[in-house]
Design brief:
Helices cover about 25% and strands about 25% of the residues. It is of the alpha/beta class and about 300 residues long. Strands 1, 2, 3, 4, 6, 7, 8, 9, 10, 11 and 12 form an 11-stranded mixed sheet that branches. Strands 5-13 form a two-stranded antiparallel sheet. Helix 1 links the parallel strand 1 and strand 2. Helix 1 (about 30-45) packs parallel to helix 4.
Length: about 300
């Protein structure tokens, strides 16, 4: 059975402004999602599941259904604040989404194969999808997961600081710890993370998580249990967020799962800020020029 690609696409992009998942960035008006699905299909994925807000549904279906029909099975699931276990109630003033762990849970009934999860507005490169399928084909343990690790220097923006999960691994390249650095930026050709009144230099070679993970279907059970525990502890907070990678981290600490770091030399890029768009457009144009993508992704 072919693996599934789960795309988190419910966010609006507050720093960016607007529905950046639909931005036409490729030479023929392709969005970053187009490249992600194209790469997934040629790597061997058999289904794509979009997590979106229900009010995005028509825009998404009108855009993607015609070009994906006959190429890959497609399903849409909807994230909304009120989709929580029945024993809990939604705080009346809550407006902020519950986070990536909650978004991921929306797809529980739509996925019954090993799967990769990605952000809608991030370009990961074809190598990541190929390595994900290779891992899935060779991994038979339901508690063995993986994460695509990017070199920090290949993930930065020229237009502001970024947040990155900096990873540590053991001798077998198994993930042991992720440290969230909320302000990482470039200054005088060097890379720093900023913490209160100090700045600490990084090499740029550190592997970081860009939210490209590979899980087995059993992970949804851990995610569901974790969400209930989260709601008990922090459900009354108006801005608390539930992250799926925090659950993976807990499983590692409890020796209930292992996460292999799959390092890639690929350059990640995304549209965190509006000012990132020219760089993304130029990068995609260059990839077409080099022959990594056909002239018009779906005209083949």
């Amino acid at each position: 059975m072919k693996p599934t690609l789960l795309i988190l696409a419910a966010g609006m992009g507050s720093r960016y402004g607007g529905l950046k998942q639909m931005d036409e960035l490729g030479p023929k008006g392709e969005s970053i999602i187009d490249y992600s699905v194209f790469d997934a299909i040629r790597a061997g994925f058999g289904k794509v599941v979009f997590v979106i807000r229900e009010d995005f549904a028509k825009v998404f279906k009108d855009r993607f259904d015609p070009q994906l029909k006959g190429k890959i099975e497609t399903e849409y699931v909807y994230q909304s604040l009120d989709k929580i276990p029945k024993e809990f109630s939604l705080p009346k003033e809550r407006q902020k989404p519950w986070g990536t762990g909650h978004a991921m849970l929306m797809a529980k009934d739509a996925i019954n194969t090993p799967f990769a999860i990605i952000n809608a507005d991030d370009f990961y490169g074809k190598d990541s999808y190929i390595q994900a399928v290779e891992f899935i084909n060779n991994s038979k343990d339901s508690s063995e997961y993986a994460m695509i690790g990017y070199a920090l220097e290949n993930t930065l923006s020229d237009h502001g600081t970024v947040s990155r999960g900096v990873c540590q691994a053991d001798a077998n390249n198994k993930l042991t710890k992720i440290t969230e650095r909320t302000k990482i930026g470039k200054e005088n050709n060097k890379i720093y993370y900023y913490q209160e009144d100090e700045k600490i230099e990084l090499t740029g070679k550190e592997p970081v998580s860009m939210n490209f993970w590979i899980f087995k279907p059993e992970f949804f059970n851990h995610l569901e249990d974790g969400f209930k525990a989260f709601l008990k502890e922090r459900g009354a907070e108006l801005k608390s967020e539930y992250y799926f990678n925090a659950i993976a981290d807990n499983l590692i600490k409890e020796n209930k799962a292992g996460v292999k770091i799959i390092n890639t030399p690929a350059k990640w890029f995304g549209v965190t800020y509006q000012e990132d768009k020219p760089m993304v457009k130029a990068s995609l144009k260059d990839l077409h020029k080099k022959g990594q993508y056909p002239n018009g992704l779906w005209n083949i």
